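Lab notebook page, bench 4
Experiment: in silico fold of construct C2
Operator: M.H.
Input chain length: 640 residues
Purpose: comparison with the prior construct
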Amino acid sequence: MAVHPVLETVTARIIQRSKPSRGAYLAHLEAARVKGVQRSALSCTNLAHGFAAFPANDKLVLKEVRKPSVAIVSSYNDMLSAHQPFEGFPAIIKEAVREVGAVAQFAGGVPAMCDGVTQGQPGMELSLFSRDAIAMATAVGLSHNMFDSAVYLGVCDKIVPGLLIGALHFGHLPAVFVPAGPMTTGLSNSDKAKVRQLYAQGKASREELLEGEAKSYHGAGTCTFYGTANSNQMLMEVMGLHLPGAAFITPGTPLRDALTAAAAQRAALITAQSDNYLPVGRVVDEKSIVNAIVGLLTTGGSTNHTLHLVAIAKAAGIVIDWDDFNELSAVVPLLTRIYPNGDADVNHFHAAGGTGFVIRELLDAGLLHDDVTTILGKGLRAHCAEPFLGEGGKGVVWRDAPLESGDEKVLRKASAPFAPDGGMILVKGNLGRAVMKVSAVKPEHRSVEAPALVFNSQEAFMAAYKAGKLDRDFVAVLRFQGPRANGMPELHALTPALANLQDAGRHVALVTDGRMSGASGKVPAAIHVSPEILAGGPLGLVRDGDIIRLDAATGTLEALVPSEVWHARALATADLSPNNVGMGRELFAMFRNSVSAAEQGATSFALPSPIPTTVSLHDGATVGETMPGSDEDFSMKKEA
């Protein structure tokens, strides 16, 4: 199937735009490689420190400096349900790689915080920046140069993007991502939302609310709704960084353990010592990034990835922006209905056909690039499969994804989608540029024109709501929620209140420089407004009573204020000092002071810059003598 012309055009533009930084990145990648195993570059003292505490047999393998060593980088902790299953994974991984003649070492742990726990709390202001801290922690774990590839254990919101950004800074190493899987289905997401709305109305007690939440989030594994955590897993599949179908297998099952073992062995078999060297810096290229955007759009995934994918791409020297998302969204059909875009959870989605079905449908429609490299080699079509236990319950076998959806209320073919577009729209105007997700917003609510009510915090909004002051048509302008101001926290506390007002017949919308993520739901919301006020953004010019027009159909985000009045205003200010101290926020000041704009990924990391061609490599050569000029050069080397 020929690639869709819009997909082709957007990809070509990204390739052209990224040439300088991608070339610099590939130079860095080549400069980090050595002949033989990576630890051969270490002195005897270095190496002795690196295996001093290891079991005798594994120590012997490491000492011989011949066979590959696989790093384990994990986000394990036992407070968070999504990460608790990782406790037992290292033992599975170590045993699995021994079976193929390699060794695995636990290279390091990374922090993992949960937005579900920190919602509405001061700790949420660390959340977005924890992604960059995770990338840095990944680099610390890999900095010992003991490793020839790595497996990354992570699931949730900032954890997977942070791990991948860290992995890409060690782009010469192959990378296999290993999820823990979702918890089994509990209280339905729609029933959970009803309890929340009733509580916001004062019609349910705190005890009833807690009981509903506990029945929904009830065991090991990630949450079952399709927010950022599960969007991460979909993207890892579409980018070819997971084994096929690995995303949504529940933890504590034989198949989950078998997939973990198979992933570990794959990591050991694609090192530079093999005939199938697949470094992550080559797997993640312009086409795989475009595939990730398409995967996000076709499943109605989290708007957080309009930040995270930009930051991930940037780590690989690739430059994308919201125009790319917007153009692709116009032609990528919506193939799934998973909460909050429907009633089903991810377990239901997996049972209906899952990721393999989605990938095949998009490939057949010309809406994904097949000519990419994955951890399985060349071609994404190998990932149109689902895993099963092998004969006797041992190992993993893959079968073709089903040809028909198991439930057309949840999953459909590209020829009969739920919607002709991906439902993620760029809106812009005199208030800046913002992202709007409309896949869960009914058509009659996608355009709102109403007076502004300006708030500087979600607490101020909720106080007005509880005082009965918001029973009217309005556009809530919630400002000073950007990355420079307070770390860009998610604003989920607003969702039940706004939903109640909309259900009561009020025309309401939200405009904010903060985040709402995959749970943004049914109320129209222009989020990630960029630039934020602290970067001179015009959101600071809005005053109570200004008529705001938010229109998904036309992509409009406007304050309908006469030009002479608008430009005569001064930017609003706010005392942000309370956001700078407490719950560790003072430690993250360096991120707030150096962070890029939301559309540039809200990250503190810059694009790769060129390195001098005289920089010495481990073998005494220079970058200029050894660096492939492009990804095409790498492909030709592999084929040769």
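Observations: Residues 5-31 form the longest helix (27 residues). The radius of gyration is 24 Å.
Next step: discuss at group meeting.
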